[in-house]
Amino acid sequence: xxxxxxxxxxxxxxxxxxxxxxxxxxxxxxxxxxxxxxxxxxxxxxxxxxxxxxxxxxxxxxxxxxxxxxxxxxxxxxxxxxxxxxxxxxxxxxxxxxxxxxxxxxxxxxxxxxxxxxxxxxxxxxxxxxxxxxxxxxxxxxxxxxxxxxxxxxxxxxxxxxxxxxxxxxxxxxxxxxxxxxxxxxxxxxxxxxxxxxxxxxxxxxxxxxxxxxxxxxxxxxxxxxxxxxxxxxxxxxxxxxxxxxxxxxxxxxxxxxxxxxxxxxxxxxxxxxxxxxxxxxxxxxxxxxxxxxxxxxxxxxxxxxxxxxxxxxxxxxxxxxxxxxxxxxxxxxxxxxxxxxxxxxxxxxxxxxxxxxxxxxxxxxxxxxxxxxxxxxxxxxxxxxxxxxxxxxxxxxxxxxxx
Length: 404
Prior knowledge:
disordered N terminus, 2 domains, 13 strands, alpha/beta, D-Maltodextrin-Binding Protein, domain 2
């Protein structure tokens, strides 16, 4: 009996020792919506079951003040082990030495994911792609048919888009060919840059020495964008554009996969067309962004942190996430081949568009560069002058910023 008791006591002691020896890592993330938060929590639970030596403390952030909280936490040395960052923020924190270089961790599976360019700063990888984001062109098939286009037609080029938008605009007083944004922070530049890139324009030269925002190609793209705005545009914020589009008042809008989710949740009966962003002579380039998982440079648990990141970004968990969130843009190439995506023509449009999408320069000052571009587009669309002058002024601001 004493021997049996001894074994029991020893076993309990070992269990207690193992439990107390578990590593706790902190993960800050932004997915708080009731439709997706339970999936995030369930994935963490599954990770802990598969990795009993690691416990995860999950903290929710909001887009309203999440960036500020991350800045303060890193600056004070109290940042989490893992933090979700939008693609535009990676260079900012990497340049400040606050993110761990994970280049050595991702060599084996780097070809299995898309989006590494947004995670790379000065030749080092500081984040792993999780969920990407792009924009496609949506159209109202009923309005296209009324305007004389057959049931298979989609615009491939800018001329195609302009011709169809003009015809739809002339269908009636309350019908518009194009949905055009009012000034709305973090929106307008994402609508202009696809035209900018499709025209072959660049923000900087290849060697990154000079800002070339006001090139002839950039001016040409903004002139075309303004022509759609002035001649065919239903002008509102993004929600207002999407409302009018779903009410049958607009022929074409640029939007993201959230529109598909909205159509499903609202049980809209809508003859929807999704297609690639048109280009000057063939399909063009769209905007690419995304959500990434990063490791704090000062974390004492980098190996455990990377285990969680690899688990969350695994193909099966990306499919699981996208199904729960009704989203279309996993970074995992294997996940993109799941029947959930291949069986849905609209999700396939997003998968195809990712392959011809481009991200902004990975620059610590991007937030200020973005502001300059948005101000230029705003002035071109709503101001009295020519489009070249706002672009020239924006180029000067950016050039000055990069010299400081």
